[in-house]
Design the sequence.
């Protein structure tokens, strides 16, 4: 089959790789119907040292089950399923607590010996725990929105949930990428009535407004902080959803948090340190969030996607086939595309 | 009257200062019955640059109301009262939320124009909001325990509450100072059944065991982390109460937190950065806590002190009069005393 490999910064290739086969009785094979490129794929795409041997990439996909191992209960060939961006047994104590990203028998896609999602097919470890059946046909118009259940929608939701977003909280969302826009959607879904979106790409913040943002702040740094404070009577917001991962974003997040407020981050931190010294301490700011246990949220979010109450798939603004994946990376890295859908 | 001033590192003096008088209609004058030296007083005592003019110090006291301004409702001369370590109106929106440390009309003791607690008397701003009446006589044996309501007991309690301590959480407490021991007491009071105390002063950790610690880890750094992990099946604890404020303590705290766990800090951070990069992110570690809104907790904790269910005053192991305050500082800084009580 064909699959995507990354060899280094700016070097993504689609190549022939061995067809996946069942290795463990808990595996399933899934033929990929839709995959996509993630903002987090852009970190290695931007900076990974060049390697002789590529590694598989992609961690968001939905598809059709083709074969299941003998220990995979509840799934059968022909089932349409979505995979969260990490696989997990969904039975260990961490999974039972809703922290499938720390599953005792789980892991990530594209690590050695495990397929990536940007290919024609995937061997899914711990398939019974990992995959969630989708009650739609393979030609459903909902596939793009359902695909966001892999990552961006539950990631935005995790950010909002851990930040304690409710009807009583004011919210700032930092970042107008697909995760930031999903966080807007999630915050609105949880009842937030005041959502300030910080982003400077008008087409994206326009979509953010449709997703529920009540205010948009295009300024960055100190000016952006001043603008959010001005919009909130000087106080900042109860919840701040940091959806970028870079140092200036977390600095802004801390600065626009109301005293006693919560900064939740779901952008992979690119800095080993967080500036939470005396100021954050004296203002009782909490830092929470982290890699989203997407699997924990899929059943909760699925009904809203199925009945069209939310349309998270609107974050996809470009579609490519497998051969177009390298172009898709270029477009996303160059900010020409918000999020690229892949139809293998 | 006489009061304590700090002039620089190692230089604390007790001097004659003007008697306090009412300045605002919301003020009260309190004659101090008991005060004490705080671990946080040791930061300036350890490093403050020498000044020509001293500044008042001390932020924990209880005493008798001598005079009240015309807007001070609910208090009268003769009332025995305790003051939390920051003053607040207790009516603004932050106070209503239980964050009196961010009161819109509040502040700290010992700032310019405001008395410190280590003296014979104190002008208390926002007295109706700040002071809490104590239903005991001025010669009550409970005074030391009641004095801990100013700071160390609610600070330990804030640490445990914000960390989400309950009967279902395992707990590590880092630091065997008065706040750490108070955090042990608070965690036990909130129902925690497994409390690991990290500290290396046996007399202090012995008191910690009496306060509720089930395990003591004397090792520090990597060895200490390994020991806590060994005690918890490799996982670390759900809640980590960081009661020191130095970089190695927060590093240890993050390392002994279970995935999905919470580190709460109440030791004033001495480092502007917190090492919460990718590891903390991938393990969904939350950092919370901050300066404790002691005022928010006094009514809740008071009954347990009054009926002797908890004896937080046991952290005092030395008593001095006002003239003995400089010696008290020396003893605490030199770890000869755990916490020094002052009887002016």
Sequence:
């Amino acid at each position: 089959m064909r699959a995507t490999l990354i060899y280094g910064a700016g070097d993504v290739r689609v190549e022939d790789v061995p067809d996946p086969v069942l290795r463990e009785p808990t595996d399933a094979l899934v033929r990929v119907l839709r995959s996509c490129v993630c903002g987090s794929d852009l970190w290695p795409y931007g900076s990974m040292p060049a390697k002789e041997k590529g590694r598989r990439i992609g961690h968001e996909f939905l598809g059709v089950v083709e074969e299941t191992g003998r220990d995979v209960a509840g799934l059968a060939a022909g089932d349409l399923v979505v995979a969260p961006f990490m696989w997990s047994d969904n039975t260990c104590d961490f999974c039972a607590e809703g922290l499938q990203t720390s599953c005792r028998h789980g892991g990530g896609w594209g690590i050695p010996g495990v397929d990536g999602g940007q290919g024609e097919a995937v061997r899914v470890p711990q398939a019974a725990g990992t995959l969630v059946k989708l009650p739609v046909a393979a030609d459903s118009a909902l596939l793009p929105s359902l695909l966001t259940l892999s990552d961006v929608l539950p990631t935005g939701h995790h950010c909002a949930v851990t930040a304690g977003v409710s009807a009583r909280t004011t919210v700032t969302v930092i970042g107008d990428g697909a995760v930031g826009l999903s966080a807007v959607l999630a915050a609105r879904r949880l009842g937030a009535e005041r959502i300030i979106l910080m982003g400077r790409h008008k087409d994206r913040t326009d979509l953010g407004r449709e997703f529920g943002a009540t205010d948009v702040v295009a300024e960055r740094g100190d000016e952006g902080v001043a603008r959010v404070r001005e919009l909130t009577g000087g106080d900042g917001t109860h919840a701040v959803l940091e959806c970028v991962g870079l140092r200036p974003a977390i600095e802004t997040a801390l600065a626009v948090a109301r005293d006693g407020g919560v900064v939740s981050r779901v952008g992979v931190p690119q800095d080993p340190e967080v500036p939470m010294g005396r100021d954050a301490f004296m203002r009782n700011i909490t830092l929470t969030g982290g890699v989203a246990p997407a699997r924990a949220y899929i059943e909760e979010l699925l009904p809203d996607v199925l009945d069209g109450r939310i349309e998270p798939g609107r974050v996809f603004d470009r579609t490519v086939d497998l051969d177009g994946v390298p172009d898709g990376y270029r477009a996303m890295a160059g900010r020409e595309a918000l999020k690229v859908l892949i139809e293998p």
Q: What stands out?
A: Chain B has two domains: 2-151+293-342, 156-289. Residues 2-151+293-342 of chain B form a domain with the Quinone Oxidoreductase; Chain A, domain 1 fold (CATH 3.90.180.10). Chain B has a mean pLDDT of 97.
